Amino acid sequence: MSKKGFLEITYSVFNDRDRELFDKLLTNTIRFYKINPKNIKYISNNNLLNSIEISEFNNKTIKINLLYVSSEILTTETFYETFIKGMSLMMNSLPSYSTKVGPESFVPDYLNGAQKSAISSMLLYKWQDESINHIDKAIDLLFRYCRGHFISNGNKRSAVLFTLFYVNYFSMNFYGNKHSDIKDIDTFEIFVHEIITNQEHQQNQDYQDSVNNIKINQGKELTDEEIRIKIYDFISKNLVINLE
Hints:
Elements: E1 2-3, E2 6-13, H1 16-32, E3 40-45, E4 48-57, E5 60-68, H2 77-93, H3 113-124, H4 134-147, H5 155-169, E6 172-174, H6 189-197, E7 199-206, E8 213-221, H7 224-238, E9 239-241
Parallel strand pairs: 2-5
Antiparallel strand pairs: 1-2, 3-4, 4-5, 6-9, 7-8
Helix pairs in contact: 2-5, 3-4, 4-5
C-alpha cells in the first residue's frame, strides 16, 4: 500500500530467526541509506515489535509492518501460485542475461514442470524448518537450481535470478538495486562456481608479455556448509529492507 508521501511495507516473520534477521537488515538499511536514528519510531505491543516508522526519507514517510505468520502458509495453494508467478516472470527475462562470452542460444523463457516441482518440495518440507531464516531459504534456491540441471542452458543464471526474486518478494533487496533483478549478475559468479565445483578459487594476475590474464587456481575443496557460510556472510552484509 502506497500513496504520495507514504510507503507501507510488510516484512514476514516466520520464526525467531526471521525476527533476528530483521534487526540486522534494519541496521544495514540505516547505515547504507544514512537514515537519522531520530527519524525512526518503534511501535510495540506487549514487548513485541509490530512496526517501524521512518520519517523524512526521500520526502516521504515509510512504515514497515512486521507480519508474524506461521510457515504453514507456505504450503497453501494460494502462496504457491503467487510465488510461481513471480518465478515465471524471472524466467521470462532469463534470455536477456548474457554470459561473459556473450548472448547464447536455446535459453528458455518459461518455468518448466521440474522447476515447479523443486520449489513445491521446498515449500512443503524444507522451508517448514523453524531454524532457518529468509537468507537460508534464498541460498536453498541458489543451490537447488544451480545443481538441478532443469534446463539445457541457463541453470546457474536462473538460480541467481530466483535467489534475488526471493529476497525481493519478502521486501528485501541488495543495496543499490532498484528492481527485482540484479544490475550485474556476475556478482554471484564465484559463489555459483563454488557450488558447482565445490572448490575455492583465487585470482592471480599474470603480467607475462604485458597482458593481464586472470588465472583461476583450484584450492582446497570446500564443503557445502562452508560455501553456504560464505554466501550467507556476503548476503547478510549487503541485504537491506527494500525502501525503493
